[in-house]
Amino acid sequence: MIQDPLQHNALFKRILENANTAMLVFDHELHLTYLNPAGEMLFALSLHRIEGSDLHSLFAHSNKFIHNVEMAFNSNHPFTERELVFTLPGNRHITADCTITPIGKDSLNACLLVELAQVDRQLRIAREEHLLAQHSATRDVIRGMAHEIKNPLGGLRGAAQLLESELENEELKEYTGIIIQEADRLQNLMNRMLGPNTLPQKKNTNIHELLERVRQLVKTEIPDEVAIARDYDPSLPDIYADPDQLIQAVLNLTRNAAQSLKAEGKITLRTRVLRQITLGHKRHKLAACIEVIDNGPGIAPEMLDKIFYPMVTGRAEGTGLGLPIAQALINQHGGLIECSSQPGETIFKILLPLEKS
């Protein structure tokens, strides 16, 4: 049994230094006195740089967290909260589970132990699994619905054609022509809702050449006041994919961004290489990240979880098929599309594994 207070302190410090979660110790005036190595990695700052910093300056934009710390300190009761969003120095945003533990009752010697366990990666994996499950369930429903609609639709069109061949009055034939045209339109709509029905024709593809083609196509369709900027990572290798399908997916996202900007604004096409990333249930050493970013008004929070459903759109003139089709095309390549949005910045992120499947 350890009785020496110095040995106690050394053991306590050694435990904190070997913890995998960020550990912060604040004194009775809520100034930082200790930060373990995991905390230094989280803040991207050394203890030497921020020792003595005030709680309010370290977490200047995390009012809810500051309130919880002060409440735990004043009541001398531990406090735990899940999935708190923090804004760290450098304007970095993280999500973490937070545990606040008051230590000591003497007001001069009391301190607070704050544990932050970052959960961004777990949340992202759960969100990706939800996206994939959502897309699979939607496809199953649409396939069943398409089967039920196509059969009577084919019969309706066939009957209209037979009727047209029996009619001699040209004015009456105009009505059968309308029936045939509308039946064809519904058929095309069902085919578009089902998404791609051919397997990808994969080959080594240069992502930046593909993005330049999309940029040129969209540039001809938008006002001069809308700028399309490029932020490419030259180290991004070729990807084994179907270039036509990728062009269609990126084109759908870029057109969507342009339509949200209306008369003026900026779209940015950005590429990056990501390492050790999980897509769905599979871990990949390398992945390509293609982002379509616009500075428009953003997507309403209540729409964010629904935008990849067919026929869901925030525009009166929209069909609600562009995003589901893009998601289906990327899913065929073992990837997925994520979306985050706030006023002034909407990001559609395409994630594609770089290794050949």
3D architecture notes:
The protein is α+β, with helices and mostly antiparallel strands. The chain is built from 11 helices and 12 strands. The strands form 3 sheets. Strands 2-1-5-4-3 form a 5-stranded antiparallel β-sheet. The chain has a 5-stranded mixed β-sheet with strand order 7-9-10-12-11. A hairpin with a 3-residue loop joins strand 3 and strand 4 (92-103). The relative contact order is 0.09. The model has no long low-confidence stretch (mean pLDDT 81).
SSE blueprint:
Layout: H1 5-17, E1 22-26, E2 32-35, H2 37-43, H3 47-50, H4 55-58, H5 63-75, E3 79-88, E4 92-103, E5 111-118, H6 120-166, H7 170-194, E6 203-205, H8 207-219, E7 226-231, E8 239-241, H9 243-261, E9 265-279, E10 282-294, H10 301-304, H11 322-331, E11 336-342, E12 345-353
Parallel strand pairs: 7-9
Antiparallel strand pairs: 1-2, 1-5, 3-4, 4-5, 6-8, 9-10, 10-12, 11-12
- Topology-level CATH name of the largest domain: Heat Shock Protein 90
Which blocks of ≥5 consecutive residues have pLDDT under 50?
Answer: none
Mean pLDDT: 81
Summarize the amount of helix as a percent range. 40-55%
Number of DSSP-assigned strands:
12
The number of domains: 3
The topology string of helices and strands comes to HEEHHHHEEEHHEHEEHEEHHEE
Q: Based on helices, strands and strand pairing, what is the structural class?
A: alpha+beta
Shape: elongated
Put simply, the count of helices is: 11
Strand order of the largest sheet: 2-1-5-4-3
Task: Give the full name of the CATH homologous superfamily of the largest domain.
Answer: Histidine kinase-like ATPase, C-terminal domain
The CATH class of the largest domain is identified as: Alpha Beta
Query: Gyration radius, to the nearest Å?
Result: 28 Å
* Cα distance spanning the termini: 57 Å
So, CATH architecture of the largest domain? 2-Layer Sandwich
Percentage beta strand: 25-35%
Biggest sheet layout? 5 strands, antiparallel
